[in-house]
Predict the 3D structure of the following.
Amino acid sequence: MSQDKDPDAAEPRPNPADELAAMQVVAKAMAPLDPAAMERVLYWAAGFYLGTTGVSLKSRQAVSSAAAGTIGVPADDEIGNMEVAEFFGRAGPNTDAGKALVLAYWLRRAKGVEEFDSQSLNAELTHLGHKVGNITRAFTVLMETRPQLVVQTRKQGTTRQARKRYKVTVEGMRRVEGMLRGDSQM
């Protein structure tokens, strides 16, 4: 009698504890490595364990993103092809400051907009159905957070209500990437 697998038999369910233990071993082994070394190790492991010796460029980019700690963060070309509403929904901001930061991030990564004014940004949020009641207050929160998530780059006019221009900081970019990974909320 043959020991062939029954095609109708259900696959055994993986043991989550075994998977978690393996992930802990991998995390410990990767900790001292720089991102380039992590990429080489993950690329090798994918080829060795999954038999993917000819890993596609897209797969290699995914491995590279994993090595850089950006799992869940879309690549620049993916963000460029993503509608703002889809990106906004993926990040899931739940405060006015978070909404402003997520949209500012998308404008920078998808459209290459380095500086923006709060009125234009709030108009776009309104189109998305997420208008911020007091956009100035939202930007004040972002600027008062330490380290700053947004900085004011200039002010046009002399009155208190003069139009101000802002820019997302590196820390602001990281915060949104944390939201995309599910590491943080805002």
User: Anything to note?
Assistant: Strands lie at 116-117, 150-156, 163-168. The two ends are 61 Å apart (CA to CA). The mean pLDDT is 80.
